[in-house]
Amino acid sequence: LSFTHTPLSLLALTSQAGQNCDSCQPFFYLNPNASRTSPQSCAPCACNPGGTADAGVCNLASGQCRCKEGVTE
To answer: Is residue 45 a contact partner of residue 56, using CB atoms and an 8 Å limit?
Structure first.
């Protein structure tokens, strides 16, 4: 790892998963506006941990969060 990486590229290195970096880590979802090989292919989830089931992990495909029972958007 080189220190010439920008914070955005470091985020990409930590947000991607899979042997070919073609999937996302927990707390990230596939960015529909970026190619799967792009450093921006995974976007951070925007879940509110206090009202979200699954500890704030969002749906990998949609980025949607699952609410705890009795909580709405």
So the answer is: yes
Calculate the dihedral angle through the C-alpha atoms of 48, 53, 54, 57, rounding to the nearest 10 degrees: -30
Q: What is the pLDDT of residues 25-73, one digit of tens each?
A: 889 999 888 877 777 888 999 998 888 988 888 999 999 999 998 887 6
Q: What is the pTM of this model?
A: 0.68
Q: Which secondary structure element, helix H or strand E, spans residue 18, and what is its range?
A: none
- 17, with CB counted inside 10 A (0-12, 13-18, 19+), is middle
Q: What DSSP assignment string belongs to 38-68?
A: STTSEEE----TTTBGGGGPPPTTT-PPPBP
* 24: DSSP letter: E
